[in-house]
Specification:
Length: about 260
């Protein structure tokens, strides 16, 4: 039975502000990418999210982003590479301590938002991020967009790499995400998301918005947790994958060899 992972970005509330329904979403996914306080989240939210993930047998990942609460980490920032390195180490360390305090462990890392998007096309930025992850723990799984510079840099660093596709995002012919400013960049309908995913999984390829087929390994599927129908979409995709005979499991149980 083919194994696949379903992940989502969680812990993105902070202070008095609530974003997403993490408790419900954790019942549908198998791995959680937890915001580490820079683009979203705060220590208490991180603690609560880790606790719920452990209760649901969901593997825990650090989701480091730019220091940009106002922009939700989706605004590009120009930072020196040594600052990027330290920022990644800091955020992984914070979540690792919170997980350890509850008997859990961080098992993967996935960069967030603009940091992730920029690194997908910038080899130097990718290298700095991957070096930071490896220096913290070379056994951490690196969750990277399929066919990206980030995936390539992680492999070069000797990290275990999980190639990721997005259930609710459209792709360009180059294999990058279509800008959110473009109509059709975000897919809102659950059935359309599942059809999008199944075509990519069956063809082992990214399928662009114009129909181009870009061959790649696929290990994990992401559903964005901050969209209005995220929980419904995640449940629908999970059920659809299982009906097709796929074993949907936590990322740390995947065979990434």
């Amino acid at each position: 039975m083919k194994m696949i992972n379903l992940n989502a970005d969680l812990g993105e509330s902070f202070g008095a502000y609530t974003i997403g329904n993490d408790a419900q979403l954790l019942k549908a996914i198998k791995s959680a990418n937890v915001a580490c306080g820079f683009h979203a989240g705060d220590p208490l939210v991180m603690q609560q999210t880790v606790s719920m993930a452990l209760e649901n047998n969901v593997s825990i990942g650090a989701h480091p982003g730019f220091p940009d609460l106002q922009g939700f980490g989706r605004r590009p920032m120009q930072m020196a590479l040594n600052d990027v390195y330290a920022m990644i180490v800091y955020q992984i360390g914070a979540l690792s301590a919170i997980a350890a305090s509850q008997g859990g462990k961080v098992t993967h890392v996935k960069p967030h938002g603009a940091l992730n998007n920029m690194a997908c096309e910038d080899a130097d930025l990718s290298s700095a991020i991957c070096r930071a992850v490896k220096d913290v723990d070379q056994n951490l799984i690196f969750l990277a967009p399929a066919l990206s510079e980030l995936s390539l840099a992680a492999k070069k660093a000797g990290l275990n790499v999980a190639e990721e596709i997005f259930a609710d995002r459209a792709y360009t012919d180059k294999g990058t995400l279509v800008s959110r400013k473009v109509e059709g960049a975000v897919i809102h309908d659950a059935e359309t998301c599942l059809n999008h995913v199944m075509e990519m999984v069956e063809k082992s390829a990214l399928i662009s918005i114009d129909g181009k087929v870009l061959k790649t390994d696929i290990h994990s599927i992401c559903v964005h947790g901050d969209t209005p129908k995220a929980c419904d979409t995640a449940s629908f995709v999970l059920n659809g994958l299982e009906k097709q005979g796929l074993n949907v499991c936590p990322l740390d149980q995947m065979d990434l060899a």
